[in-house]
Amino acid sequence: MNDDTIRLATIGRILRLRWRLLAVLTVLGALVGYGASAVLFPPRYTASASVLLLGQWEERELLTQVDIATSSSVADRTAAELGWSGVGGGELRDRVTAEAADGNIIKISGTADTPERAQRLSDQAARQFVEFAARITGGGTGSEATAAPEALRKKVDEAGRRITDLANAADPGRTVESVQARTALEKLRTSLEEAMTKLDQAAPANNKAGMVVMGPAARPGDEAPPTTTQLVVGGALLFFLVAVVGHLTAARMNRRLRAGPEIAAALGSVLLGTVDVPEERGAHQPEAPGPRARIRRLLGVDTRWDTPAPQRSGDEAGRRIRYRRVCARLREQLPAPRRLLVVVPYGDEIARRAAGQLVAEARSEPSPASSSRGYPVLRVVEVPVDRPTVPDRGPESGALVVLSAGNWTAEEVGGIAEACADGRHEVVGVVVAGPVRARATRSAGHPEDHPTVALAVHGRATGDSV
């Protein structure tokens, strides 16, 4: 796992080097959001109607009315009145909501696929709620609410007149029985009048159950969330963030070897040093055939983004000093002059150019046994990391492995070491190459040696001689 700290520069490098892939994934996320809005979340519109509750109401009583407004009984009555095909009371319960507002107001909201249906749903739900609430409280609506008390008053008045008639028709004599009868009738009339008075006094309390729909619901003009625009933007943002987090997670889980000592340990050899290779614009890169490789190149995923940014290099003389020091350490590792194979992973352009420069520097060094030049004698071979094959031991006896940091895992590097062992070559050393940014201007006394590098690299995994 890579434990490097994630910085803003890392995010910027992802955006700069993976912008094509991120753009494609963002557009894909927008399309997924649009598809979700059409299939899973079709456009919805919400309209609201308000019901005013007359009288004094406590908070718990208002909450009870809210539950009644969203009950199955009200939903079934609403569905029966609307008569929408395939829409029953159970589905309307999911579309109708209610809440208690300030001022003894119950706000009933209905959601439908069109503004007209949403308006009709909320109006009908409010109307059915008022009728149902009046029924369960024992009251009525319209003329029924006032007809019953008026009929009762008429009956009481009629009873009072009958009592008066009976009292007048009693024995006009002053007998005890007649006096008692008249007294009983007067008490009965007084009791009826008191009962009617109490009934009139209790009438305002009964009006508590009165409810009034405060006009029709306003027709909605905007969609209810989540809207199509919200889903499209959300899908694009989600895919973009997942892509960035995926890149960061892959970088954190990257097992490619970055440090020279780790690479030398994986090869079971010693690190001879690190060398710099100037970046070249338009340098040849091995291209894999096939449509998948073309898609990778089109999306920009065929190049690594998580490698460190190349540092600015010194002049040509400083870089050549590093190569000479590597050749000097290599000669110290060899007991006697001999030929060596320079093993380079296939596709590692930085390592290939570094190997060519090492060959050129080795040729320019004098041999300790004679005045001739070319010690040690190096030959470059490129081996594929998936199935590495190194030429058998022959004129060359030993291998020098050159590769770039951050491109190969421990298993791949170990496979190269095993291939060298199979060819009976001892890995005498490891050289790590890193890209650098060359200066724009060069001194006149140090010409470029790129032509020499290009001529030095001809070997392949087949073992053909230079």
UniProtKB/TrEMBL annotation:
UniProt keyword list: Membrane, Transmembrane, Transmembrane helix
InterPro entries listed in its UniProt record: Bact_polysacc_biosynth/exp
Bilayer-crossing regions: 21-41, 231-250
Keyword Transmembrane: yes
Protein name: Wzz/FepE/Etk N-terminal domain-containing protein
